[in-house]
Recover the amino acids of this structure.
């Protein structure tokens, strides 16, 4: 079951904040977040594990509500380099495969 | 430290032909997953290889097959190509027990079927 991401697109000015949401109808083991710039590979940002463990970047944070099977990615004080398409990926087991959402396109303007 | 390497970067094939895409995982990784990404969409899981065997498979027809070699590198084969197979094919490597770590993706192979 593909997770649902919202919004589909966001336009920000440098320094503004953004929140990207990801929800699933199935019980999850983990949620991953990746950023993909045009023509490039997706880059791993963050993983949130069932039970509350979190790993990832310093300037980007995320939350995982296990009861609601929802995750949110928080981008604060956005920089031009934050532009790209953000994908959440969900897993149902520790050795499961990753199912991606359709992505959220983030554009940061000067 | 080399990341995930994919070859070729671009490929043009004719309908009905067969194609082989290659992937070398990040050093130390033992698991390779293949994804198909259509324009403007998220990557879709094709299959995953570990210990030279297909562990999991997504909703793709048997025309899509793969292989993993003893050095962990992998190939994706697609037979009887259709126009709809045109996409970016991504290879991702990881440890089988990833714990709190994510996947490392290659830059992909852009396949165009004409």
């Amino acid at each position: 079951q593909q997770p649902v991401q919202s919004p589909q697109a966001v336009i920000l000015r440098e320094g503004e904040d953004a929140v990207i949401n990801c929800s699933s109808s199935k019980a999850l083991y983990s949620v991953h977040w990746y950023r993909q710039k045009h023509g490039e590979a997706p880059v791993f940002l963050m993983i949130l594990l069932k039970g509350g463990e979190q790993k990832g970047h310093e300037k980007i944070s995320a939350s995982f509500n296990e009861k609601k099977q929802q995750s949110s990615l928080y981008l604060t004080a956005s920089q031009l380099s934050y532009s790209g398409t953000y994908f959440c990926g969900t897993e149902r087991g520790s050795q499961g495969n990753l199912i991606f959402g359709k992505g959220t396109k983030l554009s940061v303007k000067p | 430290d080399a990341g995930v390497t994919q070859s070729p970067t671009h490929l043009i094939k004719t309908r009905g032909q067969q194609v082989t895409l290659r992937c070398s995982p990040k050093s130390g990784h033992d698991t390779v997953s293949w994804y198909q990404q259509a324009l403007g969409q998220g990557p879709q899981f094709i299959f995953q290889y570990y210990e030279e065997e297909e562990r999991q498979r997504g909703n793709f027809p048997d025309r899509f097959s793969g292989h993993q070699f003893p050095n962990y590198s992998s190939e994706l084969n697609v037979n009887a190509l259709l126009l709809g197979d045109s996409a970016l094919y991504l290879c991702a490597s990881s440890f089988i027990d990833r714990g709190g770590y994510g996947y490392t993706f290659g830059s992909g192979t852009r396949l165009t079927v004409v």
